[in-house]
Amino acid sequence: MREIVNGARPGVAAGGRRGSPPPAEPPTEHSARGLVLVGEPHVGRYALAARRRLELLTDASTRIGTTLDVRRTAEELAETAVPRLADYVTIDLPEAVLRGEEAADPFTDLYRTVVHGIADDCPFHPVGKRVDYGPATPHLRCLSGGQAVLEPDLGAAMGWVAHDPPRTEVMLAHVHSLIAVPLVARGVVLGVAAFYRGQHPAPFDDDDRSLVQELAGRAALSIDNARRYTRERTMVLTLQRSLLPQGLPDQDAVDVAHRYLPAESDVGGDWYDVIPLSGTRVGLLVGDVVGHGMLSAATMGRLRTAARSFAELDFSPDEVLTHLDNLVGRLDREAPAAGDTGVFGATCLYAVYDPTTQQCTMARAGHPPPALVRPDGTVTFPDLPAGPPLGLGGLPFEAVDIDLPEDSRLVLYTDGLIEGRNRDVDLVLERLRGALAHPDRTPEEICETVLDTVAPVHPRDDIALLVARTHALPGHRIATWDLPADPSLVSEVRSSAMRRLADWGLEEAGFAAELVLSELVTNAIRHGSGPVRVRLLHGRTLICEVSDRSNTAPHLRRAATTDEGGRGLFLVAQLARSWGTRYIRQGKVIWAECGLDAA
Q1: What's the angle, vertex CA 21, arms to CA 20 and CA 23, rounded to 5?
Q2: Which of 10, 62, 325, 491 lies 20 to 30 Å from 596, alpha-carbon distance?
Q3: Are 328 and 378 a contacting pair, CB within 8 Å?
Q4: Range of 267's domain?
């Protein structure tokens, strides 16, 4: 250090030139004689403590709030504070906060959520237990006042000791100092955190209380973010599950099991459906709406409802996808936020299985192909035409017929099962093949096995899984007659049908079936084009089918009192549970379903 004496630099005389010695001057009253440094012995320790506090807050900003899970965020607060600030940390949250809601009474509805410390021997209330604090305890005082409460000596904290004397006596053997701090964010009381010291010899002080207050404030914001996210996710998941099938319909074509697994972060728009169709057939449907959140869940509900309506009209799988494609395009154009980019899109796979022919007709729109498990355990992934995703418009869909013997398994799924970050789709499909190569497993067992062995541990997308085991309608429960378009043959067919009903033990249904069959056959001969085929199916119900080569469909109308005809279909509608028309490659089928006990 250079020293300036009497305002001159060393080696330069005041008013002289460089190098000449300064003139000797007698010391005056204000002349500098030396330099004295004065310091406090604890300044270095205070600076070190301040630096450690700053490091703790910096670490907290990166460690707390890494997930949007309320419980995990609270655990991160405790892990950040132990052991650098406290030896033990407990966090109590209302049950409503864990569900994503605001607590109606955050002062009494508290549950132990986190217990974290340097050892496991401290007798805190266990996680999950409801905790009650007296009005004089530091925990309730901090909640009432909104500020951290410091108890440097717990042995002298009478409010804490008197609340539960037997427990506090045991606790004093492990801890000696406490800071209780409320967790408050955006004016919402989320809970209370307690910081304890036991092995650390120094009690908490006012600086520690300020640090804990700052730490708890930052953590409370992260907990509140997680709470609000949990609430939104719960709402979306509730909507999603309410729009999925609430039960399986009654049908004999397949045994079905299904699973829906939401993504860990955002709920998507995956769905499945099982749709009973005419002629003992059944439709199996899986789909996936692009995106996540409330909009995707709502769009999924609209598409599932529309798909079911199209299927119940007996459209073929490719026609159903065509109608859905038009619907998605219309939704996209009508959305006010769509703009020019489009916000809607979906993939879909629709399969129709007929137990009378043991044939399955399938079509897909940008969806992963299904897996087929033959009765011998052979697993294949049929090469169906992929088709464009729904919403692109203008491109055709193609349906494929596949023979599916009885006791086969048809496995439909969404892409969340096989796709994902750092996942090789080919390897996942091989794993799926191995999980399915067990023909003795039931659909329920297949669902469990697939989710355990194939699904990702932390799914980033929804998973919908539908497994169907096929049945065949026995040949002795099917009766078929082919006849030319000759009205004189109606009575003959009617008599043959009544004899077959007697063989089946369905005499009680004979009267209604005779009238229905007579009307349908007569209409086909008069208004259709031959040849005519009559088929009776004895399953869960009695189904009468009459097919011809014409594409004209009858319609129900109310006949006037002066009309001689026009009442046949009215009688059919009154006698049958349901009736309708479905079109086939060559003509149409008019069907009517009657109860087995119809009189």
Answers
A1: 120
A2: 491
A3: no
A4: 244-470
